[in-house]
Amino acid sequence: MADITRRFGWRHLRSAPTAHIRHHKRGELVHDGRGLSFWYRSLSAALSEVPVDDRELAMAFHARTADFQDVTVQATVTYRVSDPALAADRLDFSVDPDTGSWRGAPLEQIATLLTETAQQHTLDVLARTPLAEALVDGVASVRERVATGLAAEPRLPATGIDVVAVRVVAIRPEAEVERALRTPAREQIQQEADRATYERRAVAVERERAIAENELASQIELARREEQLVDQRGTNARREAEEKAAADGVRAEAEASRKVRLARAEAEAARETGAARAEAQAAWLRVHSEVDPATLHALAATRLAENVPRIESLTLSPDVLTGLLAKLGRPEGGPGERAEGRAGA
C-alpha cells in the first residue's frame, strides 16, 4: 500500500518498488511505473496500485477419488502480475486518493480464479484415480496436471497474470479411512517388530546356549584336570610311599646291620672279657692252690671281716673257739674260757 500524506490541499504519494502505480488525470495517464513519488490533487486524480511481486496462494479443497473416497488436497500456487496495465484494465486495482486503500478486492478475485482453476483440474485427475494410488502417486500427478492446466488457462494471460510455481503439499483421506489404511501397515510393522523381537530372543537364547555350552565345557575340562590332579597326587603318594618304604628298608637294614655289628662286638667283648676273667680266675685259683691253707684261711677271715657289719661284741662258745684256734694254729684254751673282742668294719 502506498504512503499518502496531506499538505495544504495537496496529496503526496510514495509507492514501494514492488508496486506499479498508474495515475490518471482528466482521463489521461500522467504517471505510470514502479516506486513513483509525486504530488496530486485528490479531486482530479484516479490512482491504481498493482502489486508486481511474487505472491503465495495457499488453497485447500475436497475431491473424490475413483472409489468414491473423499480426500483433502492442500496446495500452494505462486503467481505474479506480469502486465500491470492489462491487470489494471481487467481488474479493479483502484485506490482511494485520500487513504491509499483499494476500493475493491482484486487479489481475492485472482485467488478465486486460481483456486477454482486448480480445483477443476485436481478433481479431473482424482476422479479417475483410486484412493490407494492417489495417496501414493497423487501428489505428483495432481501437481503436474494443475501446473499444465493453469498454464493453458486463457483468462490468466488475458488478465496479465503468470503462474510461477505449483506445489501440492498433501492429499489426505478422511480420518476414519486414514486409520483403516494405517491398520495393515501398522500390523505389518508390528509383525516386523514381533519378528525382530523373536529373532532377538532367539539370538539371546542361542547366545545363552553357547554360554552354557562353554561353561559345561569348562566344567568338563576342570573335572578332567581334577581327575588328572587326583591321579597325579595318587602317583605322587604311591611314589612317596615307595620311596619312604625303600628308605625305611634301607634304614632298617642299616639298623639291623648296626645291631648285628654291635651284638658281634658285644659278643666279642664278652668273649674276650670272659676269657680274661677265666684267665684271671685260673691264675687266682692257681695262686691259691699253691698257697698254704692257713694263709687262705687268714685271707678269708680278713675278707670276711672287711665285708661284715660292725660288731660291738661277740660271744663265742668254747667249741667254736677251740675249732677256730685249731684252724689258726693257736693253742686251745680251757673249757669255759670266754673271749671278748671288738672288731670294726
UniProtKB/TrEMBL annotation:
Pfam families: Band_7. Residues 35-197 form the Band domain. Gene3D superfamilies: Band 7 domain. InterPro entries: Band_7, Band_7/SPFH_dom_sf. This is SPFH domain-containing protein.
